[in-house]
């Protein structure tokens, strides 16, 4: 008998660890079909970048389950900013494998906004959302991308693990792997820096390492990054604000100062001309 | 110019006001005379020059502090 330990149980996702193996029960309805199977294959073909599922996805009582080797998560007090930048740069340099599903649009933005309740803060988030490009909102077809790359699709620091203490960092979570504009992989960190949650030093270390490693999502000259990060980071500010407001409402609590700051950013975004 | 290591094409970039050449192929970097020293000088001034932020962003100090993680730090770690 091997004892198992629950390491994640939220949003209809369950992750259980037994010794060196982790089993993930994906959200019902997610991670199904040939596209997900192809994403698993792509990750497995890039072992230097992904801590990929061990073998193809399993169907357990109608739910998709994947197994992977356990990896040590990021220490919140000492995130590997440079490694994160280098790993993303390496991912974005991989020749896009055949039959890579399209990243499409960042669907979580519209989903988070659709779950907003009433109130002044929620209205501000909705106004900022209205100023995002129609294709991001889901109201127009996704435009073509000039230089399509392989992207993680849902990058944040919870998506990095390493094998043991001295091991190198790898991505986990293959659900959103796709081909598209790699700038979306930088959008969450950019948004959190812009609203004052991610320290300038941390953002600078991450972005600098990404550039030095040849990362193609931003133009190479320092300071030029906002020409491409402006729109995706506005979208992520809207998404994170909408998610935070919903959580605060569910927990029946006032907004934390950082959350009020996010709503303030939405107010300022809403005052800007809408993006094409 | 071409990379002395792999003969790839070298592109000129500007890093903190210093011109450097980087190979498009192997990503190796070539520095002219004095440029390494210039980068070293930049490094000492680096912490004084924070990266730029968009106009709609937060102005003033950031919310988090060393050793303290504020209410939205989790947004760095979750979807």
Please provide a written account of the structure.
The complex is a heterodimer of chains A (276) and B (79). Chain A is an alpha+beta fold. Chain A has nine helices and ten strands. In chain A, the strands form three sheets. In chain A, strands 1-2-3-5-4 form a five-stranded antiparallel beta sheet, with no helix packed on it. In chain A, helix 4 crosses helix 9. Chain A is globular, with a radius of gyration of 19 Å. A three-stranded antiparallel beta sheet of chain B has the order 1-2-3. Chain B is 15% helix and 18% strand. Chain B has a domain of 46 residues: Ubiquitin-like (UB roll), CATH 3.10.20. The model of chain B has no long low-confidence stretch (mean pLDDT 77). By secondary structure, chain B is of the alpha+beta class. Chains A and B meet through helix 6, helix 7, helix 8 and helix 9 of A and strand 1 of B.
């Amino acid at each position: 008998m091997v004892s198992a330990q629950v390491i994640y149980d939220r949003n209809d996702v369950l992750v259980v660890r037994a010794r060196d193996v982790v089993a993930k029960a994906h959200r019902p309805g997610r991670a199904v079909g040939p596209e997900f199977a192809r994403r698993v294959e792509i990750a497995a073909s890039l072992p230097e970048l992904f801590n990929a599922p061990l073998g193809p996805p399993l169907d357990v009582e109608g739910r998709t389950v994947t197994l992977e080797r356990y990896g040590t998560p990021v220490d919140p007090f000492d995130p590997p900013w440079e490694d994160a930048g280098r790993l993303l740069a390496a991912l974005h340099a991989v020749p896009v494998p055949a039959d890579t599903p399209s990243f499409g649009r960042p669907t979580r933005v519209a989903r988070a906004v659709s779950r907003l309740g009433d109130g002044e803060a929620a209205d501000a988030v909705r106004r900022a959302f209205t100023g995002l490009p129609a294709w991001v909102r889901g109201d127009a077809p996704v435009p073509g991308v000039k230089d399509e790359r392989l992207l993680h699709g849902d990058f944040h620091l919870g998506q990095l693990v390493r094998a043991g203490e001295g091991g190198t960092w790898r991505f986990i979570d293959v659900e959103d792997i796709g081909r598209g504009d790699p700038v979306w992989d930088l959008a969450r960190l950019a948004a959190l820096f812009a609203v004052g949650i991610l320290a300038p030093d941390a953002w600078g270390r991450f972005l600098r390492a990404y550039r030095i490693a040849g990362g193609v999502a931003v133009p190479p000259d320092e300071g030029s990054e906002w020409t491409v990060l402006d729109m995706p980071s506005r979208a992520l500010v809207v998404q994170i604000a909408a998610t935070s407001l919903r959580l605060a409402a569910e927990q029946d609590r006032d907004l934390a100062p950082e959350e009020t700051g996010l709503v303030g950013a939405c107010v300022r975004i809403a005052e800007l001309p809408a993006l094409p | 110019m071409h990379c002395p290591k792999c003969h790839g094409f070298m592109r000129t970039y500007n890093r903190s006001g210093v011109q450097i050449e980087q190979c498009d192929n192997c990503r190796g970097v070539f520095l002219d005379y004095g440029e390494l020293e210039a980068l070293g000088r930049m490094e000492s001034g680096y912490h004084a020059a924070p990266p730029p932020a968009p106009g709609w962003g937060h102005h003033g100090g950031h919310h988090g502090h060393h050793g303290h993680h504020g209410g939205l730090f989790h947004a760095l770690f979750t979807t």
